[in-house]
Amino acid sequence: AARLCSGTRGEAEAADGEGAMLRHLARKLRASGPVTVAEYMREALTNPGQGYYTRRGGVGESGDFITSPEISQVFGELIGIWCISEWMAVGKPNTFQLVELGPGRGTLTDDILRVFKQLASVLSKCDVSVHLVEVSPKLSEIQAVMLTGGKVQPNPEDKSAYMKGISKTGIPIFWYRDIQDVPPGYSFYLAHEFFDALPIHKFQRTEKGWREVLVDIDPEVPDQLRFVLSPSRTPATQNFIQPEETRDHVEVCPEAGVIVQRLASRIEKDGGAALVADYGHDGTKTDTFRGFRNHKLHDVLSAPGTADLTADVDFSYLRKMVQGRTATLGPIKQREFLKNMGIDLRLQVLLQNSGDTATREQLLHSYDMLMNPEKMGDCFNFFALLPHHRLVHPDKKDKPESKSPLAPVAGFNELLLK
Protein backbone atom coordinates (compact mmCIF):
# COMPACT_ATOMS: atom_id res chain seq x y z
CA ALA A 1 0.00 0.00 0.00
CA ALA A 2 1.46 3.31 -1.13
CA ARG A 3 4.94 3.25 0.34
CA LEU A 4 4.15 0.02 2.16
CA CYS A 5 3.70 0.10 5.91
CA SER A 6 5.81 -3.03 6.00
CA GLY A 7 7.87 -4.97 3.49
CA THR A 8 11.21 -6.56 2.73
CA ARG A 9 14.49 -4.88 1.91
CA GLY A 10 14.94 -4.21 -1.81
CA GLU A 11 18.07 -4.61 -3.91
CA ALA A 12 21.10 -3.33 -2.10
CA GLU A 13 23.11 -1.97 -4.96
CA ALA A 14 22.34 0.18 -7.97
CA ALA A 15 22.78 -1.06 -11.51
CA ASP A 16 25.49 0.31 -13.80
CA GLY A 17 25.24 4.06 -14.25
CA GLU A 18 23.23 4.48 -11.04
CA GLY A 19 26.27 4.95 -8.79
CA ALA A 20 26.86 8.55 -9.85
CA MET A 21 25.09 10.00 -6.79
CA LEU A 22 27.04 7.74 -4.43
CA ARG A 23 30.34 8.82 -6.05
CA HIS A 24 29.30 12.49 -5.79
CA LEU A 25 28.39 12.10 -2.09
CA ALA A 26 31.57 10.13 -1.32
CA ARG A 27 33.72 12.94 -2.77
CA LYS A 28 31.77 15.51 -0.80
CA LEU A 29 32.05 13.56 2.49
CA ARG A 30 35.79 12.97 2.07
CA ALA A 31 36.33 16.67 1.40
CA SER A 32 34.16 18.19 4.12
CA GLY A 33 33.16 15.48 6.59
CA PRO A 34 29.77 14.06 7.62
CA VAL A 35 26.51 15.74 6.52
CA THR A 36 23.13 15.96 8.24
CA VAL A 37 20.41 13.49 7.25
CA ALA A 38 18.51 16.51 5.87
CA GLU A 39 21.36 17.36 3.51
CA TYR A 40 21.70 13.71 2.49
CA MET A 41 17.96 13.51 1.70
CA ARG A 42 18.04 16.78 -0.24
CA GLU A 43 20.92 15.55 -2.40
CA ALA A 44 19.49 12.07 -2.92
CA LEU A 45 16.00 13.31 -3.84
CA THR A 46 16.42 16.66 -5.59
CA ASN A 47 20.04 16.99 -6.82
CA PRO A 48 19.59 18.57 -10.30
CA GLY A 49 21.69 15.92 -12.08
CA GLN A 50 21.17 12.68 -10.16
CA GLY A 51 18.33 13.25 -7.65
CA TYR A 52 15.57 10.64 -7.42
CA TYR A 53 12.70 13.07 -8.16
CA THR A 54 14.56 15.01 -10.85
CA ARG A 55 15.68 11.83 -12.64
CA ARG A 56 13.18 9.09 -11.85
CA GLY A 57 10.18 10.18 -9.78
CA GLY A 58 8.79 6.64 -9.61
CA VAL A 59 5.09 7.06 -8.80
CA GLY A 60 2.67 4.35 -9.98
CA GLU A 61 2.69 0.61 -10.51
CA SER A 62 5.80 0.68 -12.73
CA GLY A 63 7.63 2.96 -10.27
CA ASP A 64 8.77 2.58 -6.68
CA PHE A 65 5.56 3.37 -4.80
CA ILE A 66 1.85 3.83 -5.52
CA THR A 67 -0.41 6.49 -3.97
CA SER A 68 -4.10 6.58 -3.04
CA PRO A 69 -5.24 8.52 -6.16
CA GLU A 70 -3.51 5.86 -8.32
CA ILE A 71 -5.48 3.12 -6.52
CA SER A 72 -8.99 4.53 -6.86
CA GLN A 73 -10.67 7.46 -8.61
CA VAL A 74 -12.97 7.73 -5.59
CA PHE A 75 -10.16 9.14 -3.43
CA GLY A 76 -9.66 12.22 -5.63
CA GLU A 77 -13.39 12.64 -6.20
CA LEU A 78 -13.98 12.88 -2.44
CA ILE A 79 -11.17 15.45 -2.07
CA GLY A 80 -12.88 17.47 -4.83
CA ILE A 81 -16.17 17.26 -2.93
CA TRP A 82 -14.33 18.39 0.23
CA CYS A 83 -13.05 21.54 -1.53
CA ILE A 84 -16.50 22.42 -2.90
CA SER A 85 -18.13 21.71 0.48
CA GLU A 86 -15.73 24.14 2.20
CA TRP A 87 -16.13 26.73 -0.58
CA MET A 88 -19.92 26.60 -0.12
CA ALA A 89 -19.64 26.74 3.69
CA VAL A 90 -17.98 30.17 3.53
CA GLY A 91 -20.44 31.68 1.05
CA LYS A 92 -19.07 30.70 -2.41
CA PRO A 93 -16.29 33.26 -3.03
CA ASN A 94 -16.06 34.28 -6.71
CA THR A 95 -12.48 33.02 -7.24
CA PHE A 96 -11.15 29.59 -6.38
CA GLN A 97 -7.53 28.48 -6.73
CA LEU A 98 -6.75 24.77 -6.44
CA VAL A 99 -3.08 24.51 -5.41
CA GLU A 100 -1.40 21.10 -5.19
CA LEU A 101 2.07 20.68 -3.69
CA GLY A 102 4.05 17.83 -5.29
CA PRO A 103 1.27 16.58 -7.58
CA GLY A 104 2.96 13.29 -8.61
CA ARG A 105 1.55 12.16 -11.96
CA GLY A 106 -1.36 14.63 -11.72
CA THR A 107 -3.94 11.91 -10.94
CA LEU A 108 -5.40 13.63 -7.87
CA THR A 109 -5.89 16.97 -9.66
CA ASP A 110 -7.35 15.11 -12.68
CA ASP A 111 -9.96 13.37 -10.48
CA ILE A 112 -10.80 16.66 -8.74
CA LEU A 113 -11.25 18.45 -12.09
CA ARG A 114 -13.68 15.72 -13.17
CA VAL A 115 -15.79 16.48 -10.07
CA PHE A 116 -15.60 20.22 -10.85
CA LYS A 117 -16.90 19.49 -14.35
CA GLN A 118 -19.75 17.35 -13.01
CA LEU A 119 -20.67 20.19 -10.62
CA ALA A 120 -20.12 22.93 -13.23
CA SER A 121 -23.56 24.43 -12.51
CA VAL A 122 -22.55 24.95 -8.85
CA LEU A 123 -19.22 26.57 -9.83
CA SER A 124 -20.61 28.49 -12.85
CA LYS A 125 -20.11 31.98 -11.36
CA CYS A 126 -16.69 31.18 -9.92
CA ASP A 127 -13.32 31.81 -11.57
CA VAL A 128 -11.49 28.48 -11.05
CA SER A 129 -7.76 27.96 -11.74
CA VAL A 130 -5.21 25.22 -10.94
CA HIS A 131 -1.69 25.89 -9.61
CA LEU A 132 0.82 23.02 -9.32
CA VAL A 133 4.05 23.31 -7.31
CA GLU A 134 6.47 20.83 -8.90
CA VAL A 135 10.30 20.74 -8.91
CA SER A 136 10.67 17.65 -11.13
CA PRO A 137 10.88 18.37 -14.89
CA LYS A 138 10.01 14.74 -15.61
CA LEU A 139 6.91 14.74 -13.41
CA SER A 140 5.69 18.12 -14.72
CA GLU A 141 5.76 16.64 -18.27
CA ILE A 142 3.69 13.64 -17.09
CA GLN A 143 1.23 16.01 -15.33
CA ALA A 144 0.92 18.14 -18.48
CA VAL A 145 0.03 15.11 -20.61
CA MET A 146 -2.52 13.84 -18.09
CA LEU A 147 -4.21 17.18 -17.39
CA THR A 148 -4.00 19.03 -20.72
CA GLY A 149 -3.21 16.30 -23.26
CA GLY A 150 0.26 17.87 -23.54
CA LYS A 151 -1.05 21.26 -24.71
CA VAL A 152 1.20 23.47 -22.60
CA GLN A 153 3.62 26.29 -23.26
CA PRO A 154 6.59 27.73 -21.37
CA ASN A 155 5.71 30.95 -19.61
CA PRO A 156 8.69 33.32 -19.99
CA GLU A 157 6.75 36.60 -19.73
CA ASP A 158 5.51 35.70 -16.25
CA LYS A 159 8.63 34.53 -14.45
CA SER A 160 6.74 33.05 -11.47
CA ALA A 161 5.09 30.20 -13.46
CA TYR A 162 7.47 28.20 -15.66
CA MET A 163 4.68 26.53 -17.67
CA LYS A 164 0.98 27.02 -18.33
CA GLY A 165 -1.84 25.28 -20.15
CA ILE A 166 -5.58 24.64 -20.26
CA SER A 167 -7.05 21.48 -18.74
CA LYS A 168 -9.14 19.10 -20.82
CA THR A 169 -12.14 20.58 -18.97
CA GLY A 170 -11.17 24.16 -19.91
CA ILE A 171 -9.56 25.34 -16.65
CA PRO A 172 -6.23 27.27 -16.73
CA ILE A 173 -3.28 25.42 -15.12
CA PHE A 174 0.05 26.94 -14.05
CA TRP A 175 3.28 25.27 -12.86
CA TYR A 176 5.67 26.72 -10.23
CA ARG A 177 8.87 25.62 -8.51
CA ASP A 178 8.03 27.20 -5.15
CA ILE A 179 4.85 27.84 -3.19
CA GLN A 180 5.85 31.49 -2.80
CA ASP A 181 5.45 31.93 -6.57
CA VAL A 182 1.75 30.95 -6.46
CA PRO A 183 -0.37 34.13 -6.68
CA PRO A 184 -2.26 35.15 -3.52
CA GLY A 185 -6.01 34.64 -3.36
CA TYR A 186 -8.74 32.38 -1.98
CA SER A 187 -7.12 28.94 -2.35
CA PHE A 188 -7.37 25.28 -1.42
CA TYR A 189 -3.91 23.86 -0.80
CA LEU A 190 -3.54 20.09 -1.13
CA ALA A 191 -0.48 18.21 0.11
CA HIS A 192 -0.92 14.49 -0.50
CA GLU A 193 2.24 12.51 0.33
CA PHE A 194 4.21 15.73 0.05
CA PHE A 195 5.51 16.47 3.55
CA ASP A 196 6.85 12.92 4.06
CA ALA A 197 9.53 13.45 1.37
CA LEU A 198 10.89 16.71 2.82
CA PRO A 199 14.36 16.50 4.43
CA ILE A 200 14.48 15.63 8.14
CA HIS A 201 17.10 16.11 10.85
CA LYS A 202 17.54 13.11 13.17
CA PHE A 203 18.58 13.40 16.83
CA GLN A 204 19.60 10.88 19.47
CA ARG A 205 19.60 11.41 23.24
CA THR A 206 22.94 10.31 24.76
CA GLU A 207 24.60 10.44 28.20
CA LYS A 208 26.19 13.72 27.06
CA GLY A 209 22.87 15.21 25.92
CA TRP A 210 21.30 15.44 22.46
CA ARG A 211 23.47 14.58 19.45
CA GLU A 212 22.57 14.85 15.76
CA VAL A 213 22.66 11.74 13.56
CA LEU A 214 24.90 12.36 10.53
CA VAL A 215 25.78 10.48 7.34
CA ASP A 216 29.44 9.63 6.64
CA ILE A 217 31.68 7.33 4.59
CA ASP A 218 32.42 4.00 6.27
CA PRO A 219 36.24 3.94 6.73
CA GLU A 220 36.22 0.13 6.67
CA VAL A 221 34.34 -0.06 3.35
CA PRO A 222 35.08 2.71 0.82
CA ASP A 223 32.02 3.90 -1.11
CA GLN A 224 29.65 2.64 1.58
CA LEU A 225 27.74 5.07 3.76
CA ARG A 226 26.97 4.78 7.49
CA PHE A 227 25.26 6.76 10.27
CA VAL A 228 27.42 8.46 12.91
CA LEU A 229 26.62 10.74 15.87
CA SER A 230 27.88 14.32 15.97
CA PRO A 231 30.69 14.63 18.57
CA SER A 232 29.03 17.73 20.07
CA ARG A 233 25.79 19.72 19.79
CA THR A 234 25.04 21.03 16.27
CA PRO A 235 23.07 24.23 15.45
CA ALA A 236 20.10 22.00 14.56
CA THR A 237 20.27 20.30 17.97
CA GLN A 238 20.05 23.68 19.69
CA ASN A 239 17.24 25.00 17.46
CA PHE A 240 14.93 22.06 16.84
CA ILE A 241 14.72 20.02 20.05
CA GLN A 242 11.86 21.14 22.29
CA PRO A 243 12.80 21.45 26.00
CA GLU A 244 9.81 19.27 26.98
CA GLU A 245 10.81 16.41 24.60
CA THR A 246 10.48 12.98 26.26
CA ARG A 247 11.52 10.68 23.38
CA ASP A 248 15.10 9.41 23.02
CA HIS A 249 15.13 9.60 19.21
CA VAL A 250 13.50 12.50 17.35
CA GLU A 251 13.03 13.48 13.69
CA VAL A 252 12.34 17.12 12.85
CA CYS A 253 11.52 18.57 9.42
CA PRO A 254 12.20 22.34 9.52
CA GLU A 255 11.21 22.71 5.85
CA ALA A 256 7.74 21.34 6.68
CA GLY A 257 7.52 23.94 9.46
CA VAL A 258 8.39 26.76 7.03
CA ILE A 259 5.86 25.57 4.41
CA VAL A 260 3.05 25.15 6.93
CA GLN A 261 3.74 28.68 8.23
CA ARG A 262 3.45 30.02 4.66
CA LEU A 263 0.18 28.14 4.17
CA ALA A 264 -1.19 29.43 7.49
CA SER A 265 -0.32 33.06 6.73
CA ARG A 266 -1.90 32.81 3.25
CA ILE A 267 -5.09 31.25 4.63
CA GLU A 268 -5.22 33.85 7.42
CA LYS A 269 -4.95 36.65 4.85
CA ASP A 270 -6.89 35.35 1.82
CA GLY A 271 -9.14 32.57 3.17
CA GLY A 272 -9.42 29.03 1.88
CA ALA A 273 -7.99 25.91 3.51
CA ALA A 274 -5.15 23.41 3.41
CA LEU A 275 -5.66 19.65 3.47
CA VAL A 276 -2.66 17.45 4.28
CA ALA A 277 -2.86 13.67 3.79
CA ASP A 278 0.21 11.67 4.74
CA TYR A 279 1.89 9.00 6.83
CA GLY A 280 2.26 10.47 10.25
CA HIS A 281 1.90 10.57 13.99
CA ASP A 282 1.08 13.13 16.66
CA GLY A 283 4.52 13.50 18.24
CA THR A 284 4.79 9.88 19.40
CA LYS A 285 7.03 8.02 16.91
CA THR A 286 10.83 7.94 16.83
CA ASP A 287 12.74 6.35 13.93
CA THR A 288 10.56 6.40 10.77
CA PHE A 289 13.18 7.21 8.08
CA ARG A 290 12.94 4.64 5.28
CA GLY A 291 13.50 4.07 1.57
CA PHE A 292 11.33 2.50 -1.17
CA ARG A 293 12.37 0.95 -4.43
CA ASN A 294 10.22 -1.28 -6.67
CA HIS A 295 7.47 -1.22 -4.01
CA LYS A 296 9.79 -2.73 -1.38
CA LEU A 297 11.61 -1.30 1.61
CA HIS A 298 15.13 -0.26 0.63
CA ASP A 299 18.18 0.57 2.78
CA VAL A 300 18.18 4.39 3.02
CA LEU A 301 21.98 4.61 2.66
CA SER A 302 22.26 2.17 -0.26
CA ALA A 303 22.41 3.42 -3.89
CA PRO A 304 21.26 7.02 -3.13
CA GLY A 305 19.29 8.66 -5.91
CA THR A 306 17.68 5.36 -6.99
CA ALA A 307 15.06 5.04 -4.22
CA ASP A 308 12.38 7.22 -2.68
CA LEU A 309 13.27 8.41 0.84
CA THR A 310 10.53 9.23 3.30
CA ALA A 311 9.79 9.85 7.00
CA ASP A 312 6.49 10.03 8.87
CA VAL A 313 5.04 13.51 9.29
CA ASP A 314 4.94 14.82 12.87
CA PHE A 315 1.54 16.54 12.95
CA SER A 316 2.15 17.90 16.46
CA TYR A 317 5.15 19.80 15.02
CA LEU A 318 3.04 21.17 12.14
CA ARG A 319 0.38 22.31 14.62
CA LYS A 320 3.05 24.06 16.71
CA MET A 321 4.49 25.78 13.61
CA VAL A 322 1.06 27.18 12.63
CA GLN A 323 1.48 29.36 15.77
CA GLY A 324 -2.26 29.99 16.07
CA ARG A 325 -2.55 31.82 12.73
CA THR A 326 -5.24 29.36 11.65
CA ALA A 327 -7.34 26.68 13.30
CA THR A 328 -6.17 23.08 12.80
CA LEU A 329 -8.23 19.89 12.59
CA GLY A 330 -6.90 16.34 12.94
CA PRO A 331 -4.93 14.30 12.39
CA ILE A 332 -7.62 11.68 11.84
CA LYS A 333 -7.20 8.29 10.16
CA GLN A 334 -7.76 8.06 6.40
CA ARG A 335 -10.57 5.49 6.80
CA GLU A 336 -12.43 7.81 9.18
CA PHE A 337 -12.03 10.83 6.88
CA LEU A 338 -13.18 8.94 3.76
CA LYS A 339 -16.11 7.37 5.66
CA ASN A 340 -17.21 10.83 6.77
CA MET A 341 -16.91 11.97 3.14
CA GLY A 342 -19.39 9.29 2.02
CA ILE A 343 -17.06 6.74 0.41
CA ASP A 344 -19.49 3.89 1.22
CA LEU A 345 -22.34 5.59 -0.64
CA ARG A 346 -20.06 6.40 -3.61
CA LEU A 347 -18.88 2.77 -3.74
CA GLN A 348 -22.48 1.52 -3.84
CA VAL A 349 -23.30 3.85 -6.77
CA LEU A 350 -20.21 2.71 -8.71
CA LEU A 351 -20.98 -0.97 -8.03
CA GLN A 352 -24.58 -0.53 -9.24
CA ASN A 353 -23.37 1.20 -12.42
CA SER A 354 -20.61 -1.30 -13.26
CA GLY A 355 -21.64 -3.95 -15.77
CA ASP A 356 -18.95 -6.58 -15.33
CA THR A 357 -17.52 -8.69 -12.52
CA ALA A 358 -13.89 -7.60 -13.10
CA THR A 359 -14.78 -3.91 -12.57
CA ARG A 360 -16.74 -4.71 -9.42
CA GLU A 361 -13.83 -6.76 -8.06
CA GLN A 362 -11.42 -3.92 -8.81
CA LEU A 363 -13.71 -1.42 -7.03
CA LEU A 364 -13.92 -3.64 -3.93
CA HIS A 365 -10.16 -4.29 -3.99
CA SER A 366 -9.29 -0.56 -4.19
CA TYR A 367 -11.85 0.24 -1.45
CA ASP A 368 -10.15 -2.36 0.76
CA MET A 369 -6.69 -0.86 0.03
CA LEU A 370 -7.88 2.63 1.05
CA MET A 371 -9.97 1.67 4.09
CA ASN A 372 -8.49 -1.50 5.62
CA PRO A 373 -6.68 -0.57 8.89
CA GLU A 374 -3.97 -3.14 8.00
CA LYS A 375 -3.34 -1.44 4.61
CA MET A 376 -3.78 2.32 4.10
CA GLY A 377 -6.78 2.98 6.36
CA ASP A 378 -4.72 3.57 9.51
CA CYS A 379 -1.30 4.38 7.93
CA PHE A 380 -2.49 7.68 6.50
CA ASN A 381 -3.85 10.68 8.35
CA PHE A 382 -5.74 13.81 7.31
CA PHE A 383 -4.95 17.20 8.82
CA ALA A 384 -6.47 20.57 7.89
CA LEU A 385 -5.73 24.28 8.31
CA LEU A 386 -8.77 26.58 8.25
CA PRO A 387 -9.40 30.25 9.11
CA HIS A 388 -10.51 30.68 12.74
CA HIS A 389 -13.82 32.22 11.65
CA ARG A 390 -14.68 28.98 9.82
CA LEU A 391 -15.01 27.24 13.19
CA VAL A 392 -16.04 30.13 15.48
CA HIS A 393 -18.31 33.06 14.58
CA PRO A 394 -16.47 36.35 15.27
CA ASP A 395 -19.46 37.77 17.21
CA LYS A 396 -20.61 34.51 18.79
CA LYS A 397 -19.31 35.48 22.24
CA ASP A 398 -21.39 38.65 22.39
CA LYS A 399 -24.63 37.44 20.81
CA PRO A 400 -24.76 33.65 20.92
CA GLU A 401 -28.19 33.53 19.24
CA SER A 402 -27.38 36.03 16.47
CA LYS A 403 -25.91 33.60 13.91
CA SER A 404 -27.05 30.35 12.39
CA PRO A 405 -24.86 27.40 13.41
CA LEU A 406 -21.73 26.85 11.33
CA ALA A 407 -21.73 23.98 8.85
CA PRO A 408 -19.51 21.14 10.11
CA VAL A 409 -16.21 20.63 8.28
CA ALA A 410 -16.67 17.66 5.95
CA GLY A 411 -14.34 14.73 6.48
CA PHE A 412 -13.64 15.69 10.08
CA ASN A 413 -17.40 15.44 10.66
CA GLU A 414 -19.94 13.66 8.49
CA LEU A 415 -20.52 15.29 5.11
CA LEU A 416 -24.00 16.81 4.93
CA LEU A 417 -25.27 15.52 1.58
CA LYS A 418 -27.87 17.86 0.14
Write the layout of secondary structure elements.
Layout: H1 20-32, E1 35-36, H2 37-46, H3 52-55, H4 68-71, H5 73-89, E2 95-101, H6 107-118, H7 120-123, E3 127-133, H8 137-148, E4 152-154, E5 163-166, E6 172-176, E7 187-192, E8 201-206, E9 209-217, E10 225-229, H9 235-240, E11 249-252, H10 254-270, E12 272-281, E13 290-293, E14 296-298, E15 308-310, E16 313-314, H11 315-322, E17 327-333, H12 334-340, H13 343-353, H14 357-371, H15 373-377, E18 380-386, H16 388-391
Would you write up a description of this structure?
The protein has 418 residues and is α/β, with parallel strands linked by helices. It has a domain of 290 residues: 3-Layer(aba) Sandwich (Rossmann fold), CATH 3.40.50.12710. Helix content is 36%, strand content 22%. It has 16 helices and 18 strands. The strands form 3 sheets. Strands 2, 3, 4, 5, 6, 7, 12, 16, 17 and 18 form a 10-stranded mixed beta sheet that branches. Strand 8 and strand 9 form a beta hairpin. Helix 5 crosses helix 6 and helix 10 crosses helix 11. The longest helix is centred in the first third of the chain and has 17 residues. It is globular. The protein starts with 19 loop residues before the first helix and ends in a 27-residue tail after the last helix. The N terminus is likely disordered.
